[in-house]
Amino acid sequence: MAEAQDRRELILSTAAEMVARKGLRATTVRAIADAVGVFSGSLYHHFPSKDAIVDEVLTRYLDAIRARYAVVLASGQDPAQCLRDLVVTSLEIAEEQPHATAIYQNESQYLREMPGFHGIQSAAADIQQTWLKVIDAGVADGSFRGDIPSWVFYRLIRDAVWLSVRWHRPDGPYSTQRLADDVTSLFLTGFATPARTAPAAVQAAVSNA
User: Fold this and answer.
1) 65, 156, 157, 194 — which has fewest CB within 10 A?
2) Structural domains of the chain in order of their starting residue, each with its CATH number
3) Over the stretch 27-43, which tens digit does the pLDDT of each residue have?
4) What is the 3-state secondary structure (H, E, C) of 82-109?
């Protein structure tokens, strides 16, 4: 039984690495089986299809995100701190599960179109609602601006966080904690120095908005 479970985990980890590197469509069941060192028929003993393998990889990944986000929400911190904690939590999970993160980011269109991934779509909606809950709380208490739709702010900061995994190296001099602090600071306070006056064109745009 333990050997079968080990083989199942090997299939999952091998498939995750291959799909992240080559793409979902270019990765075949036979290629996964060859990499694991089993016949395709033996692989089907553990999973009925390639999509089933990917579904389990991403379900585990999204469940981990939801569990860690729940801890952030339960902390009772103010919205700005919760936002920062969501950022750092997301980056930490991306470090822990880089292949699942890459699959989720790169194959989003495929996942939306395939009916077999309804559970993943539901989990993704829950994750989005967590971000929106924090953002809306900040708008409600006056710590976040209310003139920009919450969903716009969410999509901008989501892409800044998740797409950073394509270039950020957590083992380099620019730490994950520093990246989280900088992302949060940029989105909440901006990039301009407080002492400088905004350019006239920017002032005019704000005035006419």
Assistant:
1) 194
2) 52-192 (1.10.357.10)
3) 999 999 999 988 888 88
4) HHHHHHHHHHHHHHHCHHHHHHHHHCHH
